[in-house]
Amino acid sequence: MVDLKDISKKDRLIMGVSGGADSVFLLLYLFKRGYKNLIIAHVNHQTRGKENEKDAIFVHNLSKKLNLPFEEIIIEKHKKGNAEDYFRNKRYEFFEELRQKYKANWIITAHHLNDNIETILLNFTRGANISGLTGIHFKDENRHIIRPLLNISRDEIEKQLKNWKQKFRVDSSNYNIDHSRNRIRQNVIPELKKINPNLEKTLKENIENLKETANFIKNKTDSWIKTNYKNNQFEINKFLNQALTIQNSILSRIFKKIHGNTNKFNQNHLKQIRKILEQNISNKKKEFGPGHFIEIRKDKDAKVARISLKNK
Fold first, then answer.
1. Angle 199-228/113-126 helices, nearest 10 degrees?
2. CATH of 13-200, one of 3.40.1180.10, 3.30.200.20, 3.40.50.620, 3.90.1300.10
């Protein structure tokens, strides 16, 4: 089921359209149901030469057929660092610029159930907390993003496009197994489906169960931080009285509060910080992300963990 509960037909929407099956399906699905205040946003990553140009022409022609505004960005070629992160950041920067330009309500992307399964398997393989194992979120209010297709499989999307006799573009780079996500898609998931032919349905149910657990942990963590984390510090004994899962969540949430994300906060770092807190020895300290450290100090009758700038 396409989830449109948070989108009104009056809303102005920035719609990311690559030309692939998922985004073409979502664009037409919205348009056929009266969601016509759409701005089509296309990103040319310059990774496949002529193919990229043909994608842009295809999407532009589709926008003209539907009489919808078309916007395109050509991203400079990636030079260093993680290419996937680079292109993702550039895409969402472009979408946000358009949202502000058109005073749009939401950015709509066509991530579907299979994308979510691939993300979860990648996160599981690389190591992730329970939040990472819930995958892609339907709604990101802070960034004004909604993903209505997370309950729809790739097979369902392509079947509907076939019924509509609608063409779409195929990204040849999706078959390059040098990329981790493609190896998951091409090699791992087919093997898992031999064990469980209803893999998508099963993992969809598992995702919902994990989301409930993640929400419980989040609420418990938020409540603890609100009560106990004051002036960049918390009492260690009160922290150690919490279940291990909640301890990890508290530290991760404080790290994110300070740095904006947890990209440089891995499980090994988490264990090292917990070990220092368990030892509870005054003046012990450990790096707590760029420019910060966490230090054990005596404060009145209790020992506290304080997060400070390194130069203080």
1. 60
2. 3.40.50.620
